[in-house]
Amino acid sequence: MSSLTLVTDIAQWFFTNLGLDFSDLEVTVQDEEQHIYAVKIHSEDSALLIGLHGRTLEEMQSILVQMCENALGSFCLIHLEINDYLAEKQKKLFAVVDRKVDLARKNGIDQVIYELTGYERKQVHAYIGDTYPDIETKSIDGDKGRELHLRLKEGIAPTGSDTPPPISLKPSKSADIVADLAALDLDGANI
To answer: Among 107, 137, 163, 190, which is 20 to 30 Å from 54 by CA?
Structure first.
């Protein structure tokens, strides 16, 4: 029996024995040598299968992986998709990332995305690397766990036009020094 057939049989048995309505069970091989499979189903009971913030889906995926690893006798990875939930979640995540990139480009200020899973951070790192050559990302430990920071790469100027040019600290002529000092507001009214 092929590993694809075995994983398909296990997935079919697993979802049938949950007692929930589902249809269109599809199992595909993403990497046969590494035992990586995608399992997709459609269900009217998707809220029960996905759970709050996808937690039930993650737990079911973990159980399905354990069952398949026991049957195959080796490590495997299962990507479980129910009613395209993860694809929609990724689409929303990338929309947030796109807005953060726009802000970073406009004002040059580092942008932070909080509360991402390790897998989501990995997706964002790859997405930024493939899509935005002027942006860099970094995961940093924060107060609430790992944070994903994105910013303009060194040497890239922000595109915002509402910032005045900096005052030169090394003017070329003495008359320029007087003009630069006159531009300074020592009372702080124009700062």
So the answer is: 137
113, 100 in Cβ contact below 8 A? yes
60: left (phi over 0), alpha (psi -120 to 50) or beta: alpha
H or E element, residue 79: strand 77-82
**pLDDT tens-digit profile of 94-125?**
999 999 999 999 999 999 999 888 888 999 99
In terms of Cα–Cα distance, which of 168, 8, 19 is closest to 78?
A: 8
Average pLDDT for residues 154-161, to the nearest whole number? 83
146 beta partners:
141
Distance CA 62, CA 68 (A): 10
Tell me if the pTM is above 0.70: no
State how far the Cα of 139 lies from the Cα of 113, in Å rounded to an integer: 10
Residue 81, classed as helix, strand or coil, is strand
Query: Where does the pLDDT of residue 37 fall: very low under 50, low under 70, confident under 90, or very high at 90 and above?
Result: very high
